[in-house]
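User: Hi! I'm working on a homework problem where we have to compare a predicted structure to a textbook description. Could you give me the structure for the chain below?
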Amino acid sequence: MHMVSLAPGILLIADPFLKDPNFARTVIFVCENDEKGSFGFVINRLFDQTLDSLIPDVIYPGIPVYYGGPVQVDTIHFLHQLPDQIQGGVQVVPGVYWGGRFDDVVELLNQGALDLQKIKFFIGYSGWTTGQLEEELREKSWIPSESTPSLVFESREQQIWQQALRNLGSNFAMMANFPIDPSLN
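Assistant: Happy to help. Predicted structure tokens:
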């Protein structure tokens, strides 16, 4: 059995039969896991608005925003690979940083000075209280996996869930093709 310990930088791949509409067929990048709980971002669900429509100071049009999760959907967060350009970010794992000075990000975006393949924006986040995520793992709601920066920053969001499963090997690869509702098969 493929076992990955619950730690910052892992992916939580939704079980193919997970019915929760917030998380069906999602992949979550975990940023923090400690005695107070866990949080991360859904990396494969595109939000229906772009960054410039949510943040008036952003003049660069069309930057995608992802639905990070159902908690605090009035907040914007970001993951990036640009520690030399964005001050104050926290390294989650090598090659992936969380947060930083948002004013700097807006200024760099408006100047066209950021590589948009190396930054991902989220509205809201996914969070769990102490022990809640561990319980969901015991219930097999999630398949934990190592992350790769290339998967975290993949822009073809519809392919992330299937690719994350395929990365686990042949036993999981066949799950990537399961129908969303097997009763319709």
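For your comparison, note the following. Residues 77 and 140 are 28 Å apart (CA to CA). Residues 102-110 form the longest helix (9 residues). Good luck with the assignment!
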